[in-house]
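Please fill in the sequence for the structure shown.

STRUCTURE ENCODING:
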């Protein structure tokens, strides 16, 4: 792939634009001074020059217009006229649109800066800019490298065995010397080997100790580098403060309100993906604070308030989560208007709306489609703002909390994970499957007996601190074919909290705590909503990552248990794929369904394994370095033993000629990744094994 000639230009232009936007807002707030004007002129001039170098003339012209508008104030009097502020912001908006089109709305860029700043010449040698996708690749590389240490630790065990063998030889040689002293002189030649064996014993011991120390040191350094990479991947929340301040300013001007905007906690760092996705939701929240909260001056004066309304945004860290709290000192949520809007929309009857409690009212607001505005404006009136907030926070596996006091104001809190990739977790076991649960969502782990679990037509439940919690075995969550009630005499239970609800998740055991790197599921994998992704343990084995919100929602649905599906073979399935992620996914799917799985990273390795062990089925990727999947299937068909083992090809190649070739080589089934269906895969495997 050809290098992107605009890659570094886009990074620098975004930073320059951030500095310009914030500077113009400071001018509007009365922050006029020669130093600020000079700085803004330097930003605009740098952006103009960089744009002309890469032939982005439209951006260069807008940057030049910014210079023209600012130049009179370099030596002339201030403050900057209101019409000139509007002109400056219009040019900033135009440049922003041009850069967005140029970037194709790409993911944000990771920068080591605390706030958007220009790439000044004096900083260029001290600043390193890294694109987010490259940071992700680096982090994945650390994860895969650490997983290889399991094999090296196995070599340590082999050296330990070698030392034990040397000890046994020395013991026998000692017995030989005793026999020689008793007159068996022909054993003397064996006894002369003793110095050599002692030397071998020393070499093995020294090598083992040295290797163990070096491995521990390298593993420790890799862990530290991995942690540092995860920190570099995080951005300060203050990156979006400029956008929020601009949104408040524009909404206030549009509605002719006086509003003061205060921000704090911008140093709180969180995943760039999270911050990027959360941006639009935050914009809707602050606009709503102005449109639905802050009253006109006359109304505020009548209520004994200051003419100027207040909107505050505060960010704070709470464990593995970040809370964005937006407060205003306005009129509060118009409860009567929400009730009336719900009745008009047919969500509630008049009688239902009259007795609706606050928590249900919040659910209605978050459901979207309701607006208390009597007219549609550029700021509000269509009832879509809370749709964006709800969907965004749900996507991020977060929560929305709303508090309001009539006449005093409203507080909207968005609680989201600091990182979608790295998280502290509790590792649990269900049968052969290991799964991780975000630690923030785990309220308690406990041990209960079978008699403590109540059973009814609606399912199983457990009493916990005066509350009746739905009891959901993890085995039933992962495999709906699990049949009947839980039969164990005792259970390990993880009490999970999400969306204000509690669920008792039954597991076979709590393995421990760990910090994991979560990998998203590929789009062609249709996993249960309670599965958020997958991770690798230190040995490179896959683990499911569970979504607490998905668990809570699954527990709300009555469970209809189907008859058990018997697996007809005890022979393992051999998964052959050079992609670590694909191997992990397929192993997780198959083991969750009750199959035994072994892995091979290449067709050559798979052939070696198949010569030494009987397998029930081959699940083979087509495109692999060296021998591809087609050749692997063709070779196994020629072998008297391996030729009887069914083979499924799984590939992204969906051309008819590729499918035809696969079947001609002897494949039993051909599955295209783009049409991947987990249920169909398991059904096909069971048919071939049946």
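FILLED IN BY: designer on duty
SEQUENCE:
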């Amino acid at each position: 792939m050809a290098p992107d000639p605009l890659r570094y230009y886009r990074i620098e232009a975004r930073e320059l634009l951030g500095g310009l936007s914030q500077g113009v807002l400071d001018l509007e707030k009365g922050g006029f001074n020669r130093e600020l004007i000079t700085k803004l002129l330097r930003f605009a001039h740098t952006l103009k020059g960089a744009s002309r170098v890469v032939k982005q003339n439209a951006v260069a012209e807008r940057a030049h217009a910014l210079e023209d508008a600012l130049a009179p104030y370099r030596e002339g009097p201030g403050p900057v006229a209101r019409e000139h502020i509007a002109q400056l912001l219009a040019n900033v908006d135009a440049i922003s649109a041009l850069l967005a089109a140029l970037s194709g709305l790409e993911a944000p860029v990771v920068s080591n800066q605390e706030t958007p700043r220009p790439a000044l010449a004096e900083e260029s040698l001290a600043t390193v800019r890294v694109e987010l996708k490259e940071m992700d690749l680096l982090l994945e590389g650390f994860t895969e490298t650490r997983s290889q240490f399991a094999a090296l630790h196995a070599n340590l065990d082999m050296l330990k065995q070698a030392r034990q063998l040397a000890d046994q030889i020395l013991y026998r040689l000692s017995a030989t010397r005793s026999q020689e002293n008793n007159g068996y002189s022909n054993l003397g030649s064996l006894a002369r080997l003793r110095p050599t064996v002692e030397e071998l014993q020393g070499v093995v011991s020294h090598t083992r100790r040295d290797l163990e120390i070096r491995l521990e040191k390298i593993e420790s350094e890799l862990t530290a580098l991995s942690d540092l990479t995860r920190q570099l991947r995080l951005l300060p929340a203050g990156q979006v403060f400029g956008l929020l301040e601009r949104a408040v300013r524009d909404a206030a001007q549009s509605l002719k309100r006086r509003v003061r905007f205060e921000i704090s906690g911008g140093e709180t760092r969180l995943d760039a993906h999270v911050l990027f996705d959360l941006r639009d939701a935050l914009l809707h929240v602050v606009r709503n604070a102005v449109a639905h909260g802050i009253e006109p001056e006359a109304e505020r004066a009548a209520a004994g308030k200051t003419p100027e309304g207040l909107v505050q945004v505060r960010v704070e860290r709470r464990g593995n989560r970040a809370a964005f709290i937006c407060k205003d000192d306005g009129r509060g949520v118009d409860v009567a208007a929400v009730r009336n809007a719900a009745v008009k929309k047919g969500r509630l009857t008049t009688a239902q709306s009259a007795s609706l409690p606050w928590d249900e009212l919040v659910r209605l607001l978050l459901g979207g489609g309701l607006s208390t505005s009597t007219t549609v404006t550029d700021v509000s009136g269509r009832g879509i703002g809370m749709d964006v907030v709800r969907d965004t926070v749900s996507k991020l596996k977060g929560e929305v909390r709303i508090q309001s006091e009539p006449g005093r104001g409203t507080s909207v809190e968005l609680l989201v994970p600091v990182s979608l990739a790295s998280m502290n977790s509790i590792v649990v076991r269900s049968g052969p499957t290991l799964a991780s649960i975000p630690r923030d969502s785990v309220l308690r782990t406990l041990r209960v007996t079978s008699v403590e679990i109540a059973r009814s037509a609606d399912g199983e439940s457990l009493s916990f601190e005066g509350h009746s919690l739905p009891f959901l075995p993890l085995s039933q969550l992962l495999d709906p074919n699990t049949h009947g009630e839980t039969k164990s005499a005792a259970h390990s239970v993880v009490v999970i909290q999400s969306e204000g609800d509690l669920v008792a998740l039954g597991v076979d055991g709590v393995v421990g705590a760990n910090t994991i790197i979560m990998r998203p599921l590929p789009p062609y994998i249709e996993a249960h909503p309670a599965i958020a992704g997958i991770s690798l343990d230190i040995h490179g084995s896959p683990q499911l990552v569970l979504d607490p919100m998905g668990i809570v929602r699954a527990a709300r649905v009555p469970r209809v248990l189907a008859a058990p599906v018997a697996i007809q073979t005890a022979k393992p399935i051999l998964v052959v794929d050079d992609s670590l992620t694909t191997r992990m996914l397929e192993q997780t799917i198959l083991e969750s369904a009750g199959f035994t799985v072994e892995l091979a990273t290449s067709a050559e390795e798979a052939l070696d394994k198949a010569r030494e062990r009987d397998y029930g089925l081959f699940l083979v990727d087509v495109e692999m370095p060296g021998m591809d999947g087609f050749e692997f299937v063709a070779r196994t068909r020629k072998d008297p033993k391996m030729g009887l083992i069914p083979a499924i090809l799984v590939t992204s190649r969906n051309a008819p000629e590729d499918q035809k070739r696969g079947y001609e080589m002897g494949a039993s089934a051909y599955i295209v990744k783009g049409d991947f269906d987990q249920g169909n895969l398991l059904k096909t495997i069971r048919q071939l094994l049946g």
